[in-house]
Amino acid sequence: MDILFENGTIRTLERNSPDAQALLVRNGRIAAVGGRTAVEDQTGIDVRRVDLAGRTLLPAFLDAHSHFTAVANQFLQVSLEGCTSWADMQDRIRDYIRRERIPAGQWVTAQGYDHNLLSERRHPDRLCLDAAAPDNPVVICHQSGHMGVFNTAALERLGVTAPTPAPAGGVIGRENGTLTGYMEENAFLEFQKRVPMRPLESFLAAYRKAQDLYASYGITTVQEGLLRRELVPLYQALLADGSLKLDVVAYGDPEGAEAARQAFPESVRQYHRRFKLGGYKMFLDGSPQGRTAWLRRPYQGEQEYRGYGTLTDAEVLGMVRQWQSAFYGKRYSQTDPHRHTDFVKLAEGFGLKGYRCQNLAEFQSAFAEAMKRKGPTWIECIIDKDEKVLPMIPGGGDINDIIMK
What is the largest CA-CA distance in the chain? Predict the structure, then answer.
């Protein structure tokens, strides 16, 4: 059957013909797009007409920020979304183990809980998870992805003990010197990636389901928001058997990006077999939902706690230099005669427009120009620490693409 869309605004996003009056779909593919009469002439006898009634039809949506593997993982894990208490979470885990016939000793992973929505108003602990799965190692991931909880068996499998130090930029939860099972930021991410992965075939099937889910919402370009080294073999398998039917843009952490660059040289900054290594990923801080984001003012109910950073300035600069060299073949000196990095030059190396401002008047002028450009911009303000920059921002603008230092 043919499907004819008409009586609306049809955006093609093609430079030479951005708009059309009608669109014809045949056997699940676009067969024709253009003027109404020309497209109607190509319809078959059996045609269903869709009256857009003045609405707009777009070719597809681009995923602005998600995690392709995390979405696939949802089909392999216990969903804790919507749980309102620790007891709800325990029931979900028990039901999953029983329904899936998970043998004793096999890892159980769960995701999607939000401690803010639980009646206890706090994260569960390892003892809660021990009661739900006494014979299995368990890890649960917070909805934000920045924190989670391991049960006692999981901590033992991972070799985490009370004296185990937390990685810089992370927290291992303790009460009176005893592990609670809770971890956040770099600590959680570090130990989470040590959890054994499911068999390859299970993952490939989950990726297919994830693509169907994205496509059901009209999303045809998907983001892998954190490509770790451990995921590179999965993508090698995906590309080898042609499983990708959507475009995937990946952003890797230092180890993951380098591994992907070596494994997929033809995918660096360009699509090859529907996969592109689009850039790099670093965490500067955490999640406001989990109260680990680094704020200017203390969190509500706190005297001093503002969250914290996960990387030092030196680590950030080192990563930028490393990635600039790897992606663009440009190198910057590790030393600076003025003991300051030329961030404006660094930004322009990435294709951003850069401004260096010595006072508020120059900042206002640079900001006004940036708003007119409507493109990624770096503004560096070298001004007295007591001068207030943000209140001086001219009103009525979208600053999402403007980076200010």
Answer: 78
